[in-house]
Each structure stands twice: as C-alpha cells, then as structure tokens.
Amino acid sequence: MCVKHLKPRIYYFHPISLIITIHLVLLINIPVYDAQVDYGKYYSECSKNATFRCGETTLGLVYYPFWGETIRPSYCGLKEFELSCENNTKNNEIPVMDIGSGNKYRVADIYSLAGEIILNRYAHKLKETCAPKFSSTTLNTKLFEYGPGTEDLYMFYGCPLDLHVRLKLGIPNNFTCRTREKRTKVIFGVESHLKDDLHRLNKLCKPPIRVPVNWTDLENLPTNVTQLLQRLSERKFAVYYKINETACRDCWGAGTGRVCWNGAEVGVNSRNNTGKKIRIAVGTSGGVMLLLLLVIFILYRRRKAKHGPSGISPNVSFNSSTMSDLGKEGTCMGVPTFSYSELEKATNFFDSGNELGSGGFGTVYKGKLTDGREVAVKRLYENNFKRVEQFMNEIVILAGLHHPNLVVLYGSTSHQGRKLLLVYEYIPNGMVADHLHGDSAQPGSLAWKTRLSIAIETASALSYLHASDVIHDPPRCEDHEHSVRQQLSCQSTPGYVDPEYHQCYQLTDKSDVYSFGVVLIELISSMPAVDISRHRHEINLAKLAINKIQADALHELVDTNLGFESDGEVRNMIADVAELAFRCLQSEREMRPSMEEVHKSLKEIQGRC
User: pTM, whole model, 2 decimals?
Assistant: First the structure.
C-alpha cells in the first residue's frame, strides 16, 4: 500500500455508451513497465508468502513496505519496516518493530488496506513509580502518524512542589515523588488538557516522557499511580504508516537500464532488451483499473449502428518528430492549446461547486467553453514534482489512442506555462459506483443484463489498451532530460490493486486483469471494493468474494435485487461471471486469463442469454 489513499470520485459516464479514458479518466498516473526485464531471484524472493508468523501470533496481508527474515529480504521493503521475532518477559516469541524512537514495539496487528499498525510497549515495563524505565514514544513523522483517538500523554518529572502557583490551569493530574531527600511533583496529562501550561512545564520540570494513549483510556485513569503507569506502558495504540511518492518512486525504477529496489540498484541489466523502445501498459492497476469504477457508465445504452466500429488500428507509434510538436504555439501533439484565462473563465475560476473529483495528480472541474462545449478540466497539483512529466505523458498517450470507449482529449494549456491544465470531453451521468452502492443507488435500478453489457464494453476497451503498443524514443528536452520517460507511480486505489503491487514490483497487463476481476465482483454484489464497516476479514471485497465462492456460498455475495434466486437464466449468467472473476483474482499472475480471453468469455456468456 503505498500511502493512505481515498478513492477519487469521477463522473465519467457517457449517455450512449461506456466511455473509458486511459488513466482513470484524467486522475491516475499512467503506469509503465519494460515487460522484458527478468527480475530473477529478486522477484522470487520478494513474492514469498505475505503471512508473518511469530510464536502464537499470525499477521496476515503483510505486503510492501514490510520485510523480515521469515517473509522476505530487506531489499523487498523499506528499512524502517522490518518485522522481527523477539522473546518478551515471559519468554514468548512476539512480532516487534521500531517506529522511530529506537525502542521496539510489539506488533499486535497490521491492517494493510487501511495502512494501520496496532502496537504496544511490550518491552518497557514500569519498575519504579518515580523512576520509570521506559522512554518517550517518538514517531518518525515522515512515515507514521497516530490513528484516530490516539494522543500523546505528557509525564513531567522533577517539577517543583509550588508548581500550582505558576500554572494557569491550577494543579493538573499529579503525584509526589521523593528522591535523595528531595520531594518533587510529577505532572501528567494530554496536550489538549495542558494547553498553555506546556511551555511552563517544559521550563520548570525535566523533559517529559511522552506515551500514546487512547481517548477512551483517559476517561477511566486509575487513581493508583503504579496502576496508571503500568497501563500506560502496556496499552495498545494505533499508528498509520505513510509511504510517500518519493519512497515509491525510488522503488519503481531508475531508468531503462537498471532495476531499482527501494532506492538501491541491484544490477539487473535490461540493455539486452529492446533498447530505447519502451512498451507502455496504459493502465495497469492503479491506472486502468480505477478505470472501471471511475469510468464505467451507468446510464448504459447500446451504441447506435451509425457509430459502427472505430476502424482504428490498435497499434500507435510516436517518434521524436512528433514530440517536437510539444513546443509549437497553438498545438500540443496535434491537439489545440487553451489559455489559462479561458479555462479559468470556463470553470468559473475553478469554483468548488464545479469540482468533479480529485486524485493523485490533480483535480477535475466541470466547465463550459465559449463555443458551448461542456468539458472536464483537469488541473495538475502545483506542488507535485512530476507534474510536467505527468502532463506530457497524458498528451503523448491520449492524443494517439482512439476508441469508441475512450474519452476524447480536447486540448491543453502550454506545457511551458506555470499552470498545467488538460481539457477532456465531459461525460454527464456519474460513475457506476454511485449507482451500485453510492448516493444514487436504488434497488433494481441497474438490471443484470445492463451490468453485463457494461462489463463487456469495459473489457473491450481494456483489451484495446493492452493491444496498443505505444512506442516512442525518450526525448531530450532542454532542461528536463527525461520529461516524457514513463515511470510507475504509487497513485493507486486500495481494493483494486494487484496484491503484488504492494511488494513494489512492476505491474503488467495481468495486474489489470486482477483489478477487472474486482469490478466484476462489484457488478455482481453492488458492494464497494473496500468497506471498513465490514468485518475486518471482509473489508477487501476480492478476499470476501474468493472466500464465498470457495465455500460454495455465491448466493451470499450476489445483490438480492438481480433475480439470482428467482430467474434461472440470470443465476447461470451470474455464476459464470463469478467463475470468471475468480480466475481473474488468482494470486499467481500466470493463472489469470488475458483481457482478450476475459472479453471473449463475457461475450460468450452474453450470447447464451
């Protein structure tokens, strides 16, 4: 899980057909891979079982960035996320890790989908009330933050006895200690309670010991000092881990010649491959597969015969002469350029009321051009260091692909300007998620045959994307040497991503297949891909579906409004689609079908109606 992520809301639904854009319609970065790199032993080592066992504790779903002697080598994760086994005071083996303070903490559980770790201070027991042997819990704030309901409790030792006359709030929670014939006060409380007295306490007392506590614990603090400190030294607390884009970027690669694992080159040479040519998987997990929820269309209608087949070859190529168009005034890769002021006016100065969604690289607004066209304007985040690269990537890819189910790129601002905006066809009818399990969901509003048709057209578009070998020679722009070099980003949505994504590997076409399997289950169940209100073993829809199918309990998964129990034809079709989804969700990529096979299977299922 590359950082904590919220699924972006996108509106893309065509009134006539399912329109799919290459990267989740505007919001997700386009993942890229060199399909011919042989990861050899690195892939083998890093793809080991993701279950960490230590003594009587089993931690499941332990993916990147975690590593440890019993699960995978250090180059498969980040150094700060080492899991190890140690003996506690009762000589029992327990899983432990360091969260930044130099002290190791017991790992009670890991919720990879939520990016959450449950810890407690197993090794720092209280022996003396007035001379506690445990130190502060100091988080590495670049990687961790406390979970909801957790706050630091400050314990100030060595405070003067007359402290109460110097504090604005009077005497907070305290007790008296006697050491070497001297009596002192010990003051304790959370930051929100101590408020303005914190700076005085820091001056008048010894540096505080800080320990995390849950707000519920604060409501019933023991009056006995020993019991109080014993609780503080043993209670569990939650932290979220944050894997930022920089950490992921170093892992995904360092150019076409070397493979980079967590920032360190390991010498996997790929120069015996196709050299300059890079095959772009225009939508691997985190790319095309948000596609499905973000870009599948709800008010589905059969495309009228007059539209016919697109007649566009799936093979598109780019060369350096094409790239030179990026600098021409009035056009960018053959698409029109708009002025910033024109798009600012079209979106009513990017009014929040026109906001359609946001994602890893930008926010999308609805707008209306002076010629009357309604458009979707994507504004890239200004504080994103990859914004120029992302901007040019989208133009290079989208300008060269044409398919009935792909959203049209109308144009952009100049790449040389400070404000980078992309202008897309606007699709008005909302996203399928809204109609399946969102604000617009109504029982029976989306019939099974409509859902099946949505799946078929989505599979058709994905098959097209997988067949589109977009080739280009990496350009050398003035001061941005690799401005259009495609690199994989960690912008992805939990629930849709190929599990191997979390181990920091390259994503392939089969990663899209996995994600499409999740979408098939959503269409069957009307459940969201991730729902933390479900039982913790069922938060992930893919895992829930696999368990139900293996237990021959498909009926417990299917939306009751689809007629699964009452209509034999519908039941057979849903069962066939569920079986296909099960194949797509296999943990081994080699066991998954190709998107072409998936599309063919769905057409066959529809043909049996």
Answer: 0.46
